[in-house]
Design goal:
By secondary structure, the protein is an alpha+beta fold. Helices cover 30% and strands 32% of the residues. It has seven helices and 13 strands.
């Protein structure tokens, strides 16, 4: 499989540091502040592409997000059950780190992304970051693990775009109900598998990105060529953003 990937991670407009980390196949970028998005072509055997967003308000969010992605980077996945065991291993690693440094107790991260293998993609999520899939139309592949998501399920919306905008403007949108947290063994994860084709795109995004864009904007931007899509997303987030900015766009060149 050959892919092209555009990716960015940065502090944004208001934060003092970047608690996000991103995993691009064989590289983890943490505590970074890119000047611009980066492009890379990769011949993929199998591997991860992921965004981890360290929990704000807790010590060590940037350590948690980097630690989890470093754990993923070195793993190979045979199936959905094995992936969930990897999440447990990554969570245990956070606990071990906090046992050595008491100030890190309670540090945590949410994460989302895709694992590519042959003609398959395994999409995974813990928390309120998101992964979208673009073929003919944009499809949100992950459900948020958040309080406002549970509230949204009780509402009636005409379409995905309306629900998206309701959630991203809700005052309680940042309360997550699942994350990998040092000192806790309880988390909810979602895993889904699909077949991929040439020209498919995946958009992997922290809440600091997808919340700054409407659903229609995401769909319109991903309809463009890869570098144009990344440029448009980054431009909007740098203008509007109130959080760290991290995203990955994966385009399948051929399977």
């Amino acid at each position: 499989m050959k892919i092209k990937v555009a990716y960015y991670t940065g502090i944004g407009n208001t934060r003092e540091n970047n608690e996000d980390s991103i995993l691009i196949y064989d590289n983890v970028y943490s505590e970074s502040n890119f000047e611009d998005f980066k492009l890379r072509e990769i011949d993929v055997d199998e591997g991860f592409f992921s965004v981890a967003d360290g929990l704000g308000g807790h010590a060590g969010g940037e350590i948690a997000s980097a630690s989890v992605l470093k754990c993923l980077k070195n793993c190979r996945v045979g199936g959905n059950k094995e992936l969930k065991k990897i999440f447990k291993m990554a969570n245990d690693k956070l606990g071990n780190l906090s046992n050595k440094t008491i100030e890190l107790y309670g540090m945590g991260t949410v994460l989302t992304g895709v694992y590519l293998k042959r003609d398959k993609a395994i999409i995974f999520n813990i928390g309120d970051s998101r992964t979208y899939f673009m073929r003919k139309n944009l499809i949100r592949m992950t459900d948020d693990h958040s309080l406002v998501w549970e509230l949204a399920k009780k509402e009636e919306f005409e379409n995905e775009a309306e629900m998206h905008n309701w959630i991203r403007k809700h005052p309680r949108k940042n309360i997550v109900t699942s994350a990998l947290i040092a000192g806790s063994d309880e988390f909810e994860s979602s895993v889904e598998e699909l077949e991929i084709k040439k020209r498919d795109k995946f958009f992997i995004s922290s809440d600091g990105v997808w919340e700054e864009l409407s659903f229609n904007e995401i769909e319109d931007f991903l309809s463009e060529e890869l570098n144009t899509a990344a440029e448009l997303i980054l431009e909007k987030c740098k203008i509007r953003g109130k959080d760290n900015i991290s995203f990955v766009i994966v385009e399948i060149i051929y399977v």
